[in-house]
Amino acid sequence: MNPKGCLIFCLALLVSTTSLADAENDVKLPKPSFTGKMSVETSMTKKKSVRHFAADPLTLEQVSQLLWAANGVLPVDAISGATIKTIPSAGGIYPLEIFLLTGDKSVKGLPAGVFHYNTMNNSLLMISSGDARMALAQAALSQIWMASAPVTIVIAGAFGKSTAKYGQRGIQYTFMESGAANQNLYLQAEAIGLRVGTVGAFDENSVSSAIKMPAGITPLLLVPVGK
Ligand SMILES: Cc1cc2nc3c(=O)[nH]c(=O)nc-3n(C[C@H](O)[C@H](O)[C@H](O)COP(=O)(O)O)c2cc1C
User: Fold this and answer.
1) Is the beta carbon of 52 within 6 A of some atom in ligand 1?
2) Is the CB of 102 under 6 A from ligand 1?
3) pTM of the full structure
4) Nearest to 201 by CA among 221, 216, 184
5) How many structural domains compose the chain?
């Protein structure tokens, strides 16, 4: 990328990231639990991708636990002061962004909409209102089963954050990191009695427009969750 292109891209990324930080309108989530009842081995044994879900609504506690597992912050390292998350990240850059799609009454305490997960604040910012789950399923090559899940978590990447340091390799790092977030979702969901599916077959532009994805952020994996 030439210097002018790089400047435009960096400004676009800054604007998009800034528009995702709005502490005043954030829905604060319950504090996630750092301990659980199921061992990681049991969770790995039970892990399975599912493609149909009960209509039962999720609770805010469950949503908080899932989002924290996907990209949550741990207590800051007392010695280095570095941010630490539930997933590894090349160079500690953390290029992933997580979005949540809800339907009408599909999460107790949340309206239908698309939300961005503010990892540092453990909160949600609504970026658009209304149920976008069917539009998302259609954008995923009409995998309509997805729309039956009470929520879908979208793992997305701000490639520019990683490529700014690592060049083209940063794109691969961002994809790799999305796998870590995805696996955490499988294990966390099992541990709290939920199931997930994974959808990587989708049209990127249609997904971005279905959920009004901010500029500079690319959808990587779609993860429907329910019982
Ligand atoms: C990167 C990736 C993309 C996937 N895309 C889809 C998809 O578009 N639709 C789908 O039904 N399953 C998808 N899956 C789920 C796989 O089909 C599933 O993990 C595989 O069949 C193994 O089954 P299991 O997860 O239950 O062990 C995807 C999984 C991964 C890791």
Assistant:
1) no
2) no
3) 0.91
4) 221
5) 1
